[in-house]
Design a protein that fits this description.
Elements: H1 22-33, E1 37-41, H2 48-59, E2 64-69, H3 75-80, H4 82-93, H5 99-110, H6 118-131, E3 136-141, H7 150-164, E4 174-179, H8 212-226, H9 232-243, H10 247-261, H11 270-273, H12 276-288, H13 292-303, H14 305-317, H15 331-335, E5 339-342, E6 345-348, H16 351-362
Parallel strand pairs: 1-4, 2-3, 3-4
Antiparallel strand pairs: 5-6
Helix pairs in contact: 4-5, 5-6, 8-9, 10-12, 13-16, 14-16
Length: 363
């Protein structure tokens, strides 16, 4: 089965054309080797899930990986049965644990609310970490799903406690959370309780956008399969110039040229599609159609009038704003990746986002 360009969900090297991210994985592994706890909080469709799966494979020779996805836990479970649901997912995702630990997790999974406590669960997790032949790494994707629930805040508090006592108590070598929102300063919804900041997290500074060389490598693989005769350097530069390497936009341009431009009246072959003219035809389609990413831009602007006004002034009146990650008005745009830090100033992240934002502001 021939490979495809993928724009939805997990990208698999044996099924999809992907950019080589070995350099990113090596950087993340150094953080794990150093025993750091950190959060990959990046905007939607920037490759977080794909990176986690690739990282799991990359780390497997040296670590026991407990890789969970909180999308598997329902809202009701977060509120009423977090410990049971967490135990269930741990059992589902990791078969490489002892029978005694597996037996205890099954008891937690089936237990009624209030019979066991997080301290019981962490006792079992400590035993797992102590008896494992390899250091244990906990990876949790879509951690945003839990951020509104007190049981998860309590869970963070326990992780924090064991991290701070890691030289006396067996615990995870590293903990990696991934999600859109920054969970480093979550507060309890119960104002009578003390907030539990996730202040043990290291800064995650690994660049998630694709590099120009990475795009070149991906198109080189595609070209070896289809022999279109494209100018790989020119096409890679065009894609990079318009997307700044934003992962889903890179893949979307490629998918449009490969599957929707090629075979049309004006571009009858793949060779015709993989040209500058074919690229700009793909840009027209991309800007004319709604995607999950463009909808998130439109929805965010509709819900944030102050942000809409500031971006309007930036785009149409050359407003200059010093970059500040704590700017409350710009925070939604930072979180969803619409803006970036360019030489100390706020700037729209790429040409495609600029065109989409401009389109929304003019409506």
């Amino acid at each position: 089965m021939p490979k495809k360009f993928n724009i939805m969900g997990l990208c698999k090297p044996d099924e999809h054309y992907i950019v080589n991210i070995q350099d990113k994985l090596a950087c993340i592994k150094k953080m794990v080797d150093n025993g750091e706890y950190f959060v990959i909080n990046r905007s939607r469709q920037c490759g977080k899930t794909t990176t986690l799966f690739a990282l799991e494979e990359y780390l497997n020779p040296d670590y026991l990986i407990l890789h969970l996805d909180f999308r598997a836990i329902s809202n009701f479970e977060f509120e009423n049965a977090f410990m049971s649901a967490f135990s269930r997912e741990l059992l589902n995702q990791c078969s490489d644990i002892s029978q005694s630990i597996s037996k205890q997790l099954k008891i937690f999974e089936k237990s009624e609310k209030g019979k066991y406590f997080l301290s019981d669960l962490f006792g079992v997790l400590c035993e797992l970490c102590e008896k494992s032949f390899k250091p244990v790494v906990l990876m949790v994707d879509e951690v945003d799903s839990a951020s509104n629930y007190q049981p998860f805040l309590d869970f963070l508090g326990k992780l924090r406690y064991y991290y701070q006592n890691r030289y006396e108590l067996p615990t995870f070598k590293s903990v990696i959370f991934a999600g859109v929102h920054d969970i480093c300063n979550l507060s309890s919804r119960d104002k009578n309780r003390i907030s539990i900041p996730w202040n043990i997290a290291s800064n995650f500074d690994v660049e998630m956008n694709f590099s120009l060389n990475g795009i070149v490598g991906m198109l080189t693989e595609y070209e070896s399969d289809y022999h279109t005769g494209m100018n790989i350097d020119e096409m890679s530069q065009l894609i990079y110039d318009y997307t700044s390497g934003y992962p889903v936009l890179v893949s979307l341009f490629c998918k449009l040229m490969d599957e929707r431009i090629a075979g049309t009246e004006n571009f009858p072959t793949k060779s015709d599609a993989w040209t500058k003219t074919g690229f700009f035809e793909a840009e027209k389609i991309l800007l004319a159609e709604e995607t999950p990413l463009s909808c998130s831009i439109f929805d965010t602007l509709k819900e944030n009038e102050k942000l809409r006004e500031v971006l309007h002034r930036m785009l149409l009146h050359d407003l200059i704003i010093p970059y500040d990650v704590y700017n409350s008005v710009m925070y939604p745009a930072i979180m969803y990746g619409f803006v970036t830090n360019k030489e100390g100033l706020f700037a729209i992240s790429n040409r495609i986002f600029e065109a989409q934002i401009y389109k929304e502001l003019m409506e």
